[in-house]
Design goal:
about 650 residues, alpha/beta, 6-stranded mixed β-sheet, 18 strands, about 20% strand
Length: about 650
């Protein structure tokens, strides 16, 4: 359990939040929401004890550990992906060493009835219990499961961390936190580094997580599927809602409307009382009634309307100049980097006014295709042509990082503004929530959200008819994303959108392209139409495998396979299933064997000789190793 009491954080004389208090339970799933700069990340850092509050106290249940994923990677590891992931099991490795040491000490003693021997045996039993609780015998299988869920292939495991982008390295950091199984998980924008498939995997994992989860996210769909409680940080205060994000939005509006109605009713009542007092203040016959009403005003609990932050960015894209009917035309296009081929002989056509979304796992070529379209990457083969008078507006995935950190906000825009747009710079910056004082800040002191807003502001400096946005919602808060989405809905030019935010993508595209295995495939509709189509395809594939004996399958088989080939395939399938059942039986037997040895280790008085000789522990290690190997074999066979 976490208890925050009158917590305050003060930066340069201004309170980020003041006297905030709340309690988080052991099984809570809390979404922290609020505008960029409201203090969400700061609150996570305080709970993780990497930052101290200005005042107030925090109490966390004794023995509870916190696992914290920051927004940005602090340093690059020089280990391989597998080595870095396995470093999460520091406690497991420490317990293994402690168990070896205690076992050796017990083996050297013969004073089986002494208090010291009993103490050592109890310590070994406690260590073994903790080892079992942490899943020490299955850590490698768990590591593989989580890394695969994060989108890594087995061939990635031995690769150095330095070969991967910051986003992929952040996935390893997230995997380590999940594998450590802390009682409190703190995640700051975890979906920024994940693709749609990995986000869905993480949703399922966190929904069943045995602990408290507190996360900051601007992904509405992710919050709705994971959280059951929403804590809003707004204007220095905390508002706590016992519901998911979408329900919070509704309850918040209802709460403010109810408060406003009660406030207006009370103000009318107060006005009536004050009019009575003013009218009869100096009449002796009404003195008692006047005094009664004065006391009534003093004792009245004044209704207050909940304060909330209404600031949000406001802009529209400039009108799109006319272009030819064909905007982008790629034929048999192959793209990659040096010897690495990312896309192989793909066709892609975009016509004037079309709006498409690029989706797929990270590393499948979405950003690579975008770089080729904007001219930053030459084709390895095939052709890619832009249409007549196509003017591109491009927001890169790392656009915020490309800003000069030493320039001020105003200088960043002023350096690229030309012509009639220059007198409007402060107006443009104001619409992106940069007031006069903020325009003089250097880029390096801006938050992630502020940098993203500044990068978007640069897009307004010239008109274009092909807008390409690569992950534009990273670091943007909910209201800012809503404004951007509304601006995109009104934009009249062609649009290519790369994003993993399902709620943001919904309704923005008329076609969705999936990037997979060096190819691209188009689906009519937006992201949810695509997900539904993919779900149906997956179900159809499963049904085809299961309908070997159905009339439809027989008809297909008669056309495509000979009788002998079909029988051979069925025999092979039966052989695989039998092998899988045999492995499952062996796993069950080994699990029983491990449990029996653990039971003996927990009774040092009864099995003192076997423990002292070390044979029992050796048998335990051998059984665990065999169990791990069988579990890995089962995983490979089942896949």
């Amino acid at each position: 359990m976490i208890q925050l009491n009158k917590l305050s954080v003060n930066f340069t004389g201004d309170f980020l939040f003041h006297d905030v208090s709340f309690v988080a339970g052991d099984k809570d799933r809390i979404g922290l929401v609020g505008h960029n700069g409201a203090g969400k990340s700061t609150l996570l850092k305080i709970i993780h004890r990497v930052q101290e509050p200005t005042s107030g106290t925090m109490v966390i249940t004794t023995g509870f550990r916190t696992g914290y994923l920051p927004q940005e990677l602090e340093e690059t590891s020089y280990k391989t992906v597998w080595e870095e992931t396995m470093s999460a099991f520091v406690e497991v490795k420490s317990i293994e060493e402690r168990m070896r040491r205690l076992t050796a000490q017990l083996g050297e003693r013969t004073d089986y009835e002494s208090e010291e021997y009993a103490t050592l045996a109890q310590q070994l039993s406690d260590a073994n219990d903790r080892y079992v609780h942490l899943g020490g015998s299955t850590i490698e299988g768990e590591a593989e499961k989580v890394l695969t869920g994060m989108g890594f292939r087995r061939t990635d495991f031995p690769r150095p961390m330095a070969e991967f982008s910051n986003g992929w390295q952040m996935r390893v950091c997230l995997a380590k936190i999940l594998l450590q199984k802390p009682e409190i998980v703190l995640l700051d924008e975890p979906t920024n580094h994940l693709d749609i498939e990995s986000i869905q995997w993480l949703e399922d994992y966190l929904a069943n997580y045995d602990g408290c989860v507190i996360l900051v996210s601007h992904d509405r769909a992710f919050l709705d599927r994971v959280t059951n409680r929403t804590v809003e940080i707004t204007l220095g205060t905390i508002q706590d809602y016992k519901c998911s994000y979408s329900q919070y939005v509704e309850q918040r509006l209802e709460r403010i409307e109810s408060q406003q109605a009660a406030y207006e009713n009370q103000q009318q009542q107060i006005a009536q009382i004050e009019r009575f007092i003013e009218r009869f203040r100096y009449k002796a016959t009404k003195a008692r009634q006047v005094q009664s009403r004065l006391k009534m005003l003093e004792k009245m609990d004044r209704v207050q309307v909940e304060d909330y932050d209404t600031s949000s960015i406001s802009f529209r894209f400039p009108p799109a100049p006319h272009s030819g009917r064909m905007v982008v035309d790629a034929k048999q296009l192959s793209l990659g980097y040096d010897a690495l081929n990312v896309l192989h002989k793909v066709d892609f056509h975009l016509e004037r006014g079309e709006r498409v979304a690029f989706v797929g796992r990270n590393g499948e070529g979405k950003s690579t295709m975008v770089k080729a379209i904007v001219g930053q990457l030459a084709p390895q083969g095939g052709t890619l042509e832009l249409g007549y008078q196509v003017v591109i507006g491009y927001y890169a995935q790392n656009q915020a990082k490309l800003l000069d950190p030493e320039k001020t906000v105003f200088e960043t825009i002023d350096d690229v503004a030309v012509g009639d747009i220059r007198p409007k710079i402060r107006t443009i910056l104001g619409s992106f929530l940069f007031d006069t004082e903020a325009t003089e800040k250097k880029v390096k002191v801006l938050s992630g959200g502020e940098k993203a807003r500044l990068a978007l502001a640069k897009l307004l400096l010239s008109p274009f008819n092909l807008l390409i946005l690569d992950e534009p919602t990273n670091h943007l808060d909910m209201p800012s994303k809503d404004v951007l989405k509304n601006a995109l809905l009104q934009y009249e030019g062609s649009l290519i959108l790369v994003s993993h935010d399902r709620d943001f993508l919904q309704g923005l595209s008329t076609k969705t392209y999936e990037f997979k295995d060096k190819q691209i495939r188009g689906y009519v509709g937006d992201v949810y139409d695509f997900l539904e189509a993919r779900k149906i395809e997956t179900l159809n594939e499963l049904q085809k495998r299961q309908q070997v004996t159905s009339g439809e399958a027989k008809a297909v088989s008669s056309n495509k396979e000979s009788y002998e080939q079909r029988k051979a395939q069925e025999a092979a399938d039966r052989k695989k299933k039998n092998r899988l059942r045999k492995i499952e039986d062996e796993i069950e037997s080994l699990q029983l064997q491990v449990a029996e040895i653990e039971d003996k280790l927990a009774q040092p008085d009864r099995y003192a000789a076997e423990i002292a000789s070390g044979e029992l522990y050796q048998a335990y290690e051998a059984a665990k190793k065999a169990l791990e190997e069988k579990e890995m074999e089962w995983l490979e066979q089942s896949e």
